[in-house]
């Protein structure tokens, strides 16, 4: 549902002259949740996981984002478990017309996906 809303917002912005250019910046951020969070069934959400970043442990999910390099508009979002590798959703964060893609070390070695 979120991707459909984002698609509609981007279409609307395009009608106002704001369009996605040919470069994308990709990155991910951890969406932290308390480890004691339980759902209605009194169990942890099966989509949330634990991960370590800079010797700090986190429990939750990860938001992976594709941002237009020129307008800084978000054009793609993917949600994964916190322990998922950033590179696993790279293809979902690209619109396909990129000439350049920027990302941190987590996306290195992904030339085939970018092509």
From TrEMBL:
It holds the Pfam family DDE_Tnp_1. Residues 22-112 form the Transposase IS4-like domain. One of its GO terms (molecular function) is DNA binding. It comes from the Bacteria. InterPro entries: Transposase_11. GO terms for biological process: DNA transposition. This is Transposase IS4.
